[in-house]
Amino acid sequence: MKDMSTKTSKPLPKWFDGELYARGETVTNRFTGESIELTATELAMYDVIKGAEFTRNYKILQKGLDWFRQANAEAYMILLD
Predict the structure, then answer these.
(1) How far is CA 8 from the centre of its chain?
(2) Is the pLDDT of residue 46 over 70?
(3) Dist CA 13 CA 45 (whole Å)
């Protein structure tokens, strides 16, 4: 597992309206069982993406996926691809 304490995060976009977290955590893909450590910012966006997926808000979903792809391509491939 990578050490996320030294990783800098891409800033959240202006349209982001989710909860901001104080720290990140490990997230596991429920389909593959693969896990990856996310920064607090990445975790906040991940939760917005999952919420948009659940509520079928495809505009926010796509914006979130685009942000996440640029912010952390490895985590995107493990959790969202």
Answers:
(1) 14
(2) yes
(3) 10
